[in-house]
Amino acid sequence: MKKIRLSILIAMVAAFTACEDAIDINVKKGTSYPVLDAWITTEPGVQKIKFTKSVPYTDQAPAPVIDDARITLIDETANKSYLFAFANGVYSYNPGDNETLGVIGHAYRLRIEYNTEVFEAIDTIKRITPIDSISYKYEKQGESFVDKDGYVAKFHAIDIKGGVDYYWMRSYRNDLQHKVGDAFSIDGYFDQSVKDGSAFILPIQEAVTDFDKPFQKGEKVIVKLRSLTSQSHFFLTQVDNQLNSGGLFAKVLENVKCNAINVTAGGGKQRLLGWFGTSAVSSKERVIE
Amino acid sequence: MKTKLFMLLGVCLLLIQVRHACAQQKYTVSGYVKDQQNGESLIGISVSKAGTSLGTVTNEYGFYSLTLPAGDHEIQFSYIGYAPIKMSVSLKSNKNLDIKMEKSSSQLSTVTVTGNKQEKAVNTLTTSLNRLDIAQMKKMPTFMGEVDVLRSIQTLPGVNTVGEGANGFNVRGGAADENLILLDEAPVYNSTHMMGFFSVFNPDAVKSINLLKGGFPAEYGGRTSSVLDIRMKDGNNQKFNVNGGISNVFSRLSLEGPIKKDESSFILAARRSYIDILMKPFLKGDMKDTKLNFYDLTGKVNFKLNKNNTLFASGYLGRDVFGFGTRINMNWGNKTATVRWNHVFTNRTFLNLTTFYSNYDYSLKFNNESAKGAGEQNQSYDWTSNIINYGVKPAFTFYINTQNSLHFGLQGIYYTFKPGTGTGVEGNETSVQQLTQQHGLEAAAYLDHEWKPNDKLGIQYGVRLSNYQYLGKGTAYYYNDTTAGIRKTLVGTKEYGANELIKAYSYLEPRITARYALTPDHAIKASYARTTQYMHQLSNTASPTPLDIWTPSTNNIQPQVADQYTVGYVYDAPSGIFEISAEAFYKKMEHQLDYIDNANLELNQQIEADLLQSHSRSYGLEVMARKDIGRTTGWVSYTLSRSERQTNGISLNEWFLNRYDRTHNLNLVITHELNKRTSLSANWVYASGTPGTFADSRLEFQDWDIPYNSTDKRNNYRLPAFHRLDMSLTLKGKQLRRWKGEWVFSLYNVYGRRNAYTIYFKQNDDDPSKKEAVRLSIIGSIIPGITYNFKF
Q1: Do both A216 and A141 map to the same domain?
Q2: For residues B130 and B155, what is the distance between their CA atoms, to the nearest angstrom?
Q3: Quick check: is A29 in a domain?
Q4: Are A20 and B545 in contact (CB < 8 Å)?
Q5: What is the domain partition of chain B in residue ranges?
Q6: In sequence order, what are the residues at sequence separation of 6 or more whose Cβ sits closer than 8 angstroms to the Cβ of residue B720?
Q7: Contact list, B283 vs chain A (CB under 8 Å)
Q8: N or C, which end of chain A is more exposed by having fewer CB within 10 Å?
Q9: Does B473 sit behind a cis peptide bond, omega within 30 degrees of 0 on the bond before it?
Q10: pLDDT tens sequence across B18-53
Q11: Are residues A51 and A118 in the same domain?
Q12: A6 and A141 in a common domain
C-alpha cells in the first residue's frame, strides 16, 4: 500500500510543478564495511554469494570484491555443509547442473570467516506457490498509466492456504540481466491477517511491468516468485523503502540492519552489512506476441 | 485539584471586590464596536480616555467594557485604517455605547489621537503575538494569485516550514502537529489543500488572524507550540455584497448580506480549483475520469437577539479530490461547525459559550475495473480513517475596573479516532482490516488575572488545569520495554468497556506575562508558559501527509509538555510610523514522538511498539520591524534559532537537529502604492537549508544499490539555503459605485530558483548503473498568476 500511495502522491506533485535533478553534494567519505549478498534458492545449478565492500554512494565503479573470506553454508536440517569457493569475483558452489542445493523446509546457517573474525546468519526455505500464468494487455499512453504505448503484463498466482506466506516477486525483461520490478507480499496482499489462500492483488500482479517502459512486442517477460521468511520479508521491504524514498513525503534515510551476527570467540569488533536469505522459487516466462 | 482552583478563583474575586468597594464611585461604559460600512465587529480596537493611559481593547467579538470614575470623560476609539472617533460621555450611571467606525480614505488619520493606543504592541501585555488582518494579507504577493493565510504567516518571525509545498508550518522549533489551528474556535486538522500549496481558509471569509507563539494566556491549551486563531467574517449586515475572483487555478465567490439590517447577517463563500476541467480535453480512455481538484465552502450567520445576546453559527467544509482514471480515487478534508452565544451579563461581565464539532477524514479507493482481463474477478480496496471532536467552552471575562480584569472558563473536548479501516473485495469475497477505535476526553479549567497597576506595569498571570482521559471502548496494549530503538514486544492486552478509564493524565499549567514600559515608546516584556498536548500526529516523512493519522495519548504514549520562556522589547516610533520588536525564547519540550528505524505507521494495530518519545529544545532570537502607515508599508523579520532533540535509540542517542531547524530566516515584505489604483508588492525570503540525513555509502545487494549512512547520525548534513523572490502588481479598475474590480498579476519565484525540498540517493532511472544524489524542488521555475477580483 505504502508504495502505491507514495508513488501516486509523488506523481501528483510531479504533475504540478516539481522537478528533480541530479546534483553534486559534498559528503564525507564513510567507513567502509564488508557487505554480504547471499541468497540461496531451490533453483538448480550453481549458487553464488557476493562479498564486497561498501563504497561512497556516488562512486560509479563496482564495489571492490573481498576475495579472502571463507564462506560455508550449513544445512542444519540435513546436517550437511557446503564450502563456497572464490573464483571470478564470486563465492560459489555447484551441486551439479540439474541438482539443487536448497530444500524446502530446511534451515540454513551461513558462516563467514573474514579477517580473523567469524559471522553467522540463519534463514529457512519456506514453501512456494506456483505462478499459474502471465497475461498482458496493450495500453496506450494518455489513456492509461503507461508513459508510452506498450504491454502491461501481470502474473497470476494463488496464495497457499493456511499459515502466513511471505513472497518476493521479481520480474525481468528478456533475460536475467535486465531486472524490471520487485514487489513484496504477505498472503498475496500487503499486510498480514487480511487474506489467505486467494489470488495476488492487482498492484502486486502488475508490479511485473515498469509503467514508464511497458513491454513491447517480441520481448520476453520473466517472473520469479520467491518464498521468504518473515525476517527476510521485513528486511527487503525496508530496502524497498530506502530505494524508493524520494519526493514530497520522503522518509528519513534509515539504515537497514544485517542478520549476520559476529560470533568470534572472545568477541569481535567488525560490523557486517547486507543479508543472508533463502527462498524456494517458482518461475514463469512468456513472450509478448 | 479542581476544588483548589475554584477556591483560588474565589479568593481572587473576593480580594478584587474588597479593593473595589473601597474605591470611589465608578461607572462602566460598555458596548460593541463595529464597522460603519459592513457592520463587521472590530477586534482589538483601542478604547481609551483621551489624553491618558486608561483604556482597553475590544475583544474577539468587538465588545469592550471600560470602568471610569463618575463624571465627564472624552472616550476615543482608534485603530489603524479607521478614522478615530471621540465621544464625550457623562457618567452618572453605567452606560451602553455601541460605536460604528468608518474606514479612513487615507492611511493618515485626520483626528489626532492623544494618549495611548491600547492595541499597539508597546501597550499590550501579550508577548509573542502576531496579528494580521485580511487587508494586510491582500497586499502581499501571492502564489498563483491567491491570498493565503498560511503563506502570510510564514513571513513572520519564528515561523518556518520544511520547504514550499510542505503540509504544515513550524513555530519556534516545534513540530507541525504542535500548532492549534482554530477556525472560528473549531480545531482544523489539515490546514492545506493540494498537499501544502494552498491553505484551506477562503480569504474572502476571513476577518483576522492571530498567531500566538508563546506567552499563552491560560485560555489556550491542547497544543504546545502555537495557536493560530482564525476568525471568520460575520457577513455584511448593511447591504448585500458579492465578492469574487477568477484566476488561472481556481475561482472564488462569496455572498454576504443582512438578514435583517443591523441585527443579523450571513456570509457564504465558496472556492473550487479547476485544473482537471482544463485538462479534460487532453485526456483519453481510462484517464478521462481523472480528477484533481479541491473545493471549500464556508458559511456563517449571526443574529443579534437583543442588546445582550448574540448568536453565531459557522461552518466549513473542504475537500481535496484526486482520481486517476476510474482505478484510483482519493479524497480528504475537514468539516467544522461552531455555534457561539455571546451574552453580556452585566456591562462588566461577558460570556462567550462556544460549542464545536470538527471532523477530518480521508478515503482511498482502488479497483481493477479497467485493468481486468476477461474472466478475471473484480478487485477493490477501500481505506478510510477519521478523527472527530466535539467540544464546549464557556469563557467568561470579568472587567473589574481599568486595572483589573479576570478571564476564566471551562473547556471540554471529546475525541473519537478511527485510525483506519481497510476493506478488500475480491469477487464475492470481502475482507476487512479494522484498527480499534480510540476515544479521549480532554478537560480544562482556567483562570487568568490581568492586572495593570499603573502606566508602566502590567501583569497577566494565571493557571490552567488540564486533564485528559484515555477511554474505552477499546483495547489497551502493554509492551515490554526492550532496548530503545527496537520494536517493543507485546506482553498483553486488556479490553475496556465504553467510557471506561484506561489511563488519565493531569497537568497544572502556570502562565505569566509581564510588561514594563520604560517610556511611552519603549517597553520590555517577559513571559513563561507551560503547555501540554494530548494529541499527536504520526508522521515520519519530511512534512506530514494528508494521510498521516492522529493518535491520542494512551497508556504507552505520554502527553507532550513544553515550557517556554521569552523576553522581549518593543519600540513604537512616535506617531506610530514604525514599530520594532525583538524577542528571545527558550523552549524545552518533552515526549515529542519519534519512530524506530523502519517503523510501520500504516494500518498497524501495534503502532505504539514502534514509537519513541524524545527530549527536545529550541531557542532563538526574533527581530521584526514593521511599518503599517504611509504609501510604503511592510515588514522585515529575522529569526536566528536552533531546534534539536535527543531520542534514545536514534542517532547514537546523541542530540541531533530537528528536520525543521533553520539557523537563519529572513523575510522582507514591501508594498508600495504607486497611485490610487496601482500598487506593487514584493517579498523575499532567505533561510538556511533544513537538515537532512545523507548517505555516505552504498551496499551492492541483489542488483540494488542500497543507500547507507555509516555515521549512524541523523540529520548530519544541511540542504542548500532557501531563497525566493515574489512580486505582484495590483491594478484597480475604475471604482464604479456598484462594481469594483481589480487585476492582480503575480510572479512567484521570480528568478526561478530550484530550492531543494529534499535530497535523496538513487539509481538513475534510465541507467541504473549510475548512482546519483537527487534534488527535489517542489517549485522548479517561475510561476505566473493572474487573478481578477470583483465586488458588487
Answers
A1: yes
A2: 11
A3: no
A4: no
A5: 28-101, 129-791
A6: B689, B755, B756
A7: 142
A8: C
A9: yes
A10: 444 445 788 999 999 999 989 999 998 999 888 887
A11: yes
A12: yes
CA A5 to mean position of chain CA atoms: 21
Inside any domain, residue A28: no
Give strand pairing partners of B493.
Answer: B477
B window 427-456, beta carbon within 8 A of A = 429, 431, 433
pLDDT greater than 80 at residue A110: yes
More confident residue, B16 or A251: A251
Q: What is the pLDDT of residue A12?
A: 52
State the total domains in chain A: 2
What's residue B105's pLDDT? Answer: 67
Regarding whether A238 and A100 lie in a shared domain, the answer is no
DSSP string, A187-255: TTBSSTTS-SSSBPPHHHHGGGS-TTS-B-TTPEEEEEEEEE-HHHHHHHHHHHHHHT--STTPBPP-P
CB A189 within 8 Å of CB B419: no
d(CA B200, CA B126): 27
Q: Quote the Cα angle for B6-B10-B14, to 5°.
A: 170
pLDDT at B238: 92
Determine the Cα–Cα distance for residues B458 and B525; give it in Å rounded to an integer.
Answer: 9
Residue B428 gets the label, from left (phi > 0), alpha (psi -120 to 50) or beta, of alpha
Contacts of A18 in chain B (CB under 8 A): 165, 757, 776-780
Instruction: Say yes or no: A57 and A115 in one domain.
Output: yes
CATH 2.60.40.1120 for domain B28-101: yes
* Domain, as residue range, for A114: 34-126+249-278
- pLDDT, residue B195, reads 73
B52 burial (CB, 10 Å; 0-12 / 13-18 / 19+) is middle
Q: Answer whether B422 sits within 8 Å of A191, measured CB to CB.
A: yes
Tell me the percentage of chain B whose pLDDT exceeds 90.
60
Residues with pLDDT less than 50, chain B: 1-3, 5-7, 10-22, 107-110
Asked if the C-beta of B771 comes within 8 angstroms of chain A's C-beta atoms, the answer is yes
Query: Does one domain contain both A213 and A263?
Result: no
Q: What is the pLDDT of residue A6?
A: 45
Q: Decide: helix, strand or coil at residue B318.
A: strand
The answer on A237 and A159 residing in a single domain is: yes
Q: Is residue A207 part of a domain?
A: yes
pLDDT score of A237 more than 60 = yes
> Residue A224: which CATH number?
2.60.40
CATH architecture type of domain B129-791: Beta Barrel (2.40)
Q: What is the mean pLDDT of chain A?
A: 89
On whether both A145 and A214 belong to a single domain, the answer is yes
- Is A152 in Cβ contact with B707 (below 8 Å)? no
